[in-house]
Automatic annotation (TrEMBL):
This is Thiolase C-terminal domain-containing protein. The lineage of its organism: Bacteria, Pseudomonadati, Pseudomonadota, Alphaproteobacteria, Acetobacterales. InterPro entries: Thiolase (IPR002155), Thiolase-like (IPR016039), Thiolase_C_2 (IPR055140). Residues 248-380 form the Thiolase C-terminal domain. It holds the Pfam family Thiolase_C_1.
């Protein structure tokens, strides 16, 4: 029996900045108001909340707002809510919401992701760094080896592509260069300056083969998506976008034992839940916390073969706005800011509605893929305008 449909109806986004002074709760409320206005709903219509990973103080500013903060601030009475880190990456919160509305546990669910890392680092007196007495969780696999940043373990996989498949830095550069080009057309983007190949190749290395421009940067912002049940669309006044399929996977946290990251099984699994194929996708919004992660998604989703992503994006023509697979059209996290996964679903809706303005891709796009994570955790959404 086919499951009832779930749709993304409202979308909202707060100010995007670095070291903002506006409180993260207020940024979240800004994004919620915009999403409600976009959908034509009121807070009284909302009966569910979903977020990733829930409120946490570690690391500072990573997730300062939880579901209870929103329920209390807006005096909400909800039937269903969830906020946890043990789900399939950031957009897993959207999958959870879609499952809830399909099961009849809610009609309209606010999904949000709020980050405040830049401000928290600038104001340690307000957001103190906790120092645990022992290492546990994911950190136990990386900290003993001085791998303090995700760039260290992502670089290991990237170097594997260099050695096995001949990935070139000039090819990898196209992710960052294209992101910057697209960000220049996005009035909300954090970085709106062109990046040249010369600048990229001359940048300092962070973790070989990843340089400074292969990394996103800490950002302060909130992004909101409203997920609605198919039988509740009469409540909304916007163009709904259907969640046609979703897929997720988890790899091993002890990353040095894994050949391929979770983007590969997640990407392959997406097509098992739909009649659509990679050739039907009009735009791809793929996680770029580090540029190499985007390459793994291109391969995992079947847009090219394993080891072929470097050649696939070489020159940048394929992934440009007028290319065969416009990529990260809002600038991605490298250009628009580290919205930690939610920006990709937000932009997918913008493009499928034809609301991209100067960055709108040509024609009438009907199918988009949005992906978050890709390392030990990964989620992919197939979104359609039916």
């Amino acid at each position: 029996m086919a499951l009832p449909d779930a749709f993304i109806t409202g979308i909202g986004m707060s100010q995007i900045g670095v070291r903002l002074t506006r409180h993260p709760l207020l940024l979240t409320l800004d994004a919620i108001r915009e999403a409600l206005d976009d959908a034509g709903l009121t807070i009284a219509d909302i009966d569910g909340i979903s977020t990733y990973p829930g409120r946490t103080s570690m690391p500072p500013g990573f997730s300062p707002i939880g579901t209870d903060d929103i329920m209390d601030s807006l005096r909400m009475k909800v039937r269903w809510y969830v906020g946890a880190s043990e789900v399939s990456s950031q957009l897993g919160a959207v999958v959870e919401a879609a499952n809830a509305v399909r099961a009849g546990q809610a009609r309209h669910v606010i999904c949000f992701r709020t980050v405040y890392e830049a401000a928290a680092m600038a104001r340690p007196q307000e957001f103190p760094q906790a120092r645990p007495g022992r290492l546990d969780g994911f950190s136990q696999w990386i900290m003993p080896f001085n791998a303090y940043s995700a760039s260290n373990w992502v670089a290991q996989y990237a170097m594997r592509h260099v050695k096995l498949y001949g990935l070139k830095r000039e090819q990898l550069a196209q992710i960052a260069i294209t992101a910057r080009k697209h960000a220049m057309l996005n009035p909300r983007a954090l970085v709106r300056e062109e990046l040249t190949m010369e600048q990229y190749m001359g940048a300092r290395m962070i973790s070989d083969p990843l340089c400074l421009y292969d990394c996103d940067r800490f950002t302060d912002a909130s992004t909101v998506l409203i997920v609605s049940a198919g039988d509740a669309l009469g409540d909304v006044k916007c163009t709904p976008v259907r969640i046609a399929a979703a897929s997720h996977a988890s790899g091993r946290s002890s990353w040095d034992q894994t050949e391929f990251m979770a983007a590969y099984p997640t990407g392959a699994g997406l097509w098992k839940h739909t009649d659509y194929k990679p050739k039907d996708v009009d735009t791809a919004q793929l996680y770029d916390g580090f540029s190499f992660l985007t390459l793994t998604w291109l391969e995992g989703l079947g847009f090219c073969g394993v080891g072929e992503a470097g050649a696939f994006i070489e020159g940048g023509q394929r992934i440009a706005l007028d290319g065969e697979l416009p990529l990260n059209t809002f600038g991605g996290q490298i250009g628009a800011g580290r919205l930690h996964g939610f920006g990709f679903a937000h932009e997918s809706v913008v493009q499928l509605r034809g609301q991209g303005g100067t960055r709108q891709i040509p024609g009438e796009p009907r199918v988009a893929v949005a992906a978050s994570g890709g390392g030990p955790l990964a989620t992919a959404l197939l979104l359609t305008r039916d």
